[in-house]
Amino acid sequence: MALFQWDVRVYYEDTDSGGVVYYANYLRFMERARTEWMRSLGFEQDRLLAEQGILFAVRSVSIDYLHPARFNDRLNVTVEMHHRGRASLTLGQSVLRHGDSAGALCTGTVKIACIEAATFRPQPIPDPILKEIVNGG
């Protein structure tokens, strides 16, 4: 899978009283990037639910905060597949500041599981989705 990149700007509402991005908001930025990654592959999460009865849910997250982002920064959030299981994907994600060569502000590993919406039990990732993730992404 190719590296997916999505841009976001830091708004005032994303910051804490110290003027830096509140730690939990990095998870929001990463979630949005994963949604946009799936959308770029042709898969809308609401349609997957309605048409196939499946959801992708976060199973675990590990995150390292390296440098602060601040109000009005332009950020680039990346998604890259590290491992593909039968019913799960392990993704590496980074948040970087545009024009800053200092490296990642935040890095994370996110494991998402494909689950049946009615039971919340693991479901194999449908072949068309796997094909796009592996070949088209």
3D structure, described in words:
This protein has 137 residues and is α+β, with helices and mostly antiparallel strands. It has a single domain (4-136), classed as Hotdog Thioesterase (Thiol Ester Dehydrase, Chain A, Roll). The protein is 26% helix and 36% strand. It has three helices and five strands; from the N terminus they run E-H-H-E-E-E-E-H. The chain has a five-stranded antiparallel β-sheet, covered by helices on one side.
- The CATH class label is Alpha Beta
In DSSP terms (H or I, runs of 4 or more residues), the helix count works out at 3
Strand order of the largest sheet: 1-3-4-5-2
**DSSP summary, beta strand count:** 5
Q: Can you identify the CATH superfamily?
A: Hotdog Thioesterase
What would you call the structural class?
A: alpha+beta
Distance between the termini: 5 Å
**Rg from C-alpha positions?**
16 Å
* Annotated CATH architecture: Roll
Provide the helix percentage: 25-40%
- The structural domain count equals 1
The largest pleated sheet is described as: 5 strands, antiparallel
Overall geometric form: elongated
> Stretches where pLDDT falls below 50 for ≥5 residues?
none
Secondary-structure element sequence?
Answer: EHHEEEEH
CATH fold call: Thiol Ester Dehydrase, Chain A
Instruction: Give the strand content.
Output: 35-45%
